[in-house]
Design a protein that fits this description.
The chain has 538 residues and is mainly α. The chain has 25 helices and no strands.
């Protein structure tokens, strides 16, 4: 029975999410059995097939683990809520409000994509679903005002991927975090709020600078919806989301809040005259919610195999040791060179450990759903951060962010490729541009590792540290966006772009001293930009 379950799980996962995750699971199964022949620190005593099946099938550390339990208890309800909320008009309300808010400004459609994808991210559990939902409207609008096709697709993909780190769902990973960390859901959502806002801030900066560099227009009044009409038609559809968020913040369990959110969706759907729900449509929505759960549920079951092998062999702690030892060696080498000797060897060891873990998270997250990625990374990569005494909440968010980043990182940038299909652009070029636009998401985890106050509920939080961290992060993200865009007040040459990009790193470890150093480094370029702007205006 155990062997049959493993085979069926692998095949069902292949049919629902593709071959990548089952292949990874097979590699882990082989690793468990042939452990005595593994190289270096990965070597272990091995296990028999009977022992492996017993662990994966009969314990709560394998297929029937935390992941599948959370899927059954929480995630299905939230996916169903998202389907029903979209059906009663909440998705259209988000898109229309985004157009009203940002459509008229320079490069307006791109900013609409950012706002609409952020709004949709609050109810969507998939960056690809978010991309195709909002992208069908925003990508053609971006191309219409002059954005290149690959850039239009990249903006939508990057903004939609941000939906996976946006409360209250976090791509369903929030509920897994609750189980692993044993803290209330509202604390998880509070911790996720400002890092998500910084991600969108980074995209907004780069989109705005690109629009200024290309001289792009906003939407004309006749291309935008009217605020009064939007609210008249869809204001009722926001009620279920308000009920859901209120119940979560008031301390109710996630499943309790989701059930009442679903009931509210059904009631609003039948009462709303502008977008009335019929019984056949309700039946179809329920079926769609069940179908949408299959991919996530099977991915969770397959991830149970991987997590089971990790717990059986202890490979997570071995990898953590290898990463930390390698980073320490690199830190000792750098620490002996001036001017790098300004920082101590342990500081360099932490920095290089974060880089190595980030790279491994991106690689392991390629082509795998958000929740499955997070569970794998918690088992494999998070122990390395634990060795470095990084707080568990911070460690979980670090690996989660880099796992999500895989959706816009070539060569397996699934969200970017979905956007490229709508934009009619080169998929690889779209993926490269999406990664460039999402560089803020790669910078933010380093910020909250060095200053956990950004997560609001982390140990040692103070409003002073939070304020300094937030200001430093915004400046650093702004400067890195300037470097990648090649434009501030006027075009930047290649040397200036590199100089600003390297200077932005001083804002990763926020503090008054490092911020002053970064500010002094970029000041000459800022003064030259101001002079160039004045000369162009004159």
């Amino acid at each position: 029975m155990g062997t049959s379950l493993i085979v069926l799980t692998l095949e069902a996962t292949r049919r629902s999410v593709g071959p990548t995750l089952p292949l990874i699971a097979l590699v882990f199964i082989l690793f468990a059995i042939f452990g005595p022949y593994a190289p270096g620190a990965l070597k272990h005593g091995g296990t028999s097939w009977l022992g492996l099946v017993n662990h994966l099938y009969m314990t709560n550390q394998g297929i029937y683990g935390i992941a599948i339990g959370v899927m059954a208890q929480y995630v299905f309800l939230f996916i169903l809520f998202g389907v029903l909320a979209t059906r009663i008009g909440l998705g259209q309300l988000f898109i229309d409000l985004a157009m009203v808010i940002a459509g008229r400004y320079s490069g307006g459609p791109a900013k609409v994509a950012i706002f609409s994808s952020a709004f949709m991210g609050t109810i969507s559990g998939s960056s690809i679903a978010n991309t195709v939902t909002t992208g069908a409207l925003t990508i053609p609008a971006m191309k219409r005002v002059g954005y290149p096709a690959h850039f239009a697709g990249a903006v939508e993909a990057t903004a939609s991927t941000g939906g996976q780190i946006t409360p209250p769902i976090l791509g369903a990973a929030a509920f897994i975090m609750v189980e692993y960390l044993e803290i209330p859901l509202r604390d998880i959502l509070a911790a996720a709020l400002f890092p998500a806002l910084l991600h969108y801030f980074g995209i907004f900066i780069m989109v705005h600078l690109e629009a200024k560099r290309l001289g792009l227009r906003g939407l004309n009044p006749d291309e935008m919806p009217k605020m009064g009409l939007v609210l008249k038609q869809h204001w009722l559809s926001i009620i279920p989301l308000i009920i859901l968020v209120y119940m979560i913040l008031s301390g109710r369990t996630p499943d309790y809040a989701a059930v009442y959110g679903i009931i509210a969706c059904v009631v609003v759907g039948f009462l709303n005259p502008a977008n009335r729900l019929t019984f056949p449509q309700l039946w179809d929505a329920l079926a769609a919610g069940a179908k949408n759960t299959i991919a996530v549920g099977m991915a969770a079951a397959c991830v149970g195999i991987i997590v089971g092998v990790v717990t059986l062999t202890g490979v997570g702690f071995r990898l953590g040791y290898v990463v930390v030892q390698t980073a320490t060696d690199l830190g000792a080498s750098f620490g002996s060179i001036w001017p790098f000797s300004y920082f101590a060897v342990p500081q360099w060891a932490l920095f290089f450990s974060l880089i190595l873990i980030a790279i491994s998270c991106i690689i392991m997250g390629a082509g795998i759903p958000t929740t499955a990625t997070y569970i794998i990374l918690v088992a494999v990569a998070a122990p390395a951060l634990a060795v470095l005494n990084v707080e568990p909440l911070v460690a979980h968010f670090f690996v989660f962010y880099y796992g999500v980043l895989a959706d816009i990182t070539p060569p397996v940038a699934l969200a970017a490729y979905a956007a490229a299909g709508i934009a009619g652009s080169n998929p690889f070029k779209t993926g490269n541009t999406a990664f460039r636009l999402g560089i803020a998401k790669a910078q933010v985890p380093f910020v909250f590792v060095y200053s956990p106050s950004l997560l609001l509920v982390a140990d040692g939080f103070t409003w002073y540290l939070f304020t300094i961290t937030l200001i430093g992060a915004m400046l650093g993200i702004g400067f890195i966006g300037t470097a990648f865009s090649g434009y501030l007040l006027a075009p930047l040459n290649k040397l200036e772009r590199w100089w600003i990009g390297l200077s932005s790193l001083f804002f990763i470890a926020p503090g008054v001293q490092t911020m002053l150093i970064g500010g002094v480094l970029v000041l000459p370029i800022l003064l030259r930009q101001i002079a160039a702007k004045r000369a162009a205006t004159t």
